[in-house]
Structures are given as structure tokens and as C-alpha cells.
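Quick illustration, no need to memorize.
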Amino acid sequence: MRDTSAGRASVSLGYGPGRIDFAYDPERFDLLAPGASDSPELSDEAMAARLGAAIGSAALEGLVGAGERVCVVVPDATRASGSARVATLLLDRLSALGLEHAKAFTWRAVGEILLDAYAEAA
């Protein structure tokens, strides 16, 4: 966040592969953002280990059987996230559990704005 002219502030937001600077009035809005962190990025091995240590849920092995189908929903490209990396690790884990590749697919959540655009075009 940085201050701009006329008592406004600006925040840089991830959008697709780039960023957009968004100006706002700090008297009217509070910025909710994570604090600075010195935590290193997790390796693929560390992330995969966390997939095996479910919090508040049964282990993946207890939820999915070899003959079942799975849909992994990921955010669209306008959301800055590590979903491509996590989804790949998850699909690899499902494959290791015996789930056939043809029975696992991903669905990209497009959000309301894109759904409205589709509805208007129809």
C-alpha cells in the first residue's frame, strides 16, 4: 500500500499474470492484508506432505475410491493463487490412490462477472 495525492491510498492487486493499482479512500475503507512473513515458499514435497495431513477432515484415502469421479474446482486467472500448483499435486496424489485420469477433471470457476457476460451474449 502506498499513499497517493488528495488523501487517497493505493494498493497493487494481482490480476491475471499482471497487477493493477487500485486507489481508495482510507477514511472509508480498511485494507485487509496479510502481515509481512518470512516464511519460505513450500517445496512441492512439503505441500504434498500437507495434503496427506488433513485438518478437520478424513484423509484423502478415506474420501476417494479408485472407481469414483473427482472434480477439482480452481479459481480463474483473475485470482492470484497457487491453484495450478496445488491442483497438480492433488491430481498426482489421486492418481497414486488409483483414481483413473479419465475420472478426475478440473473446473475453472469463472465468477459472476464472466457468467453475466455469457448471459448477456446469449
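Residues 41-122 form one domain.
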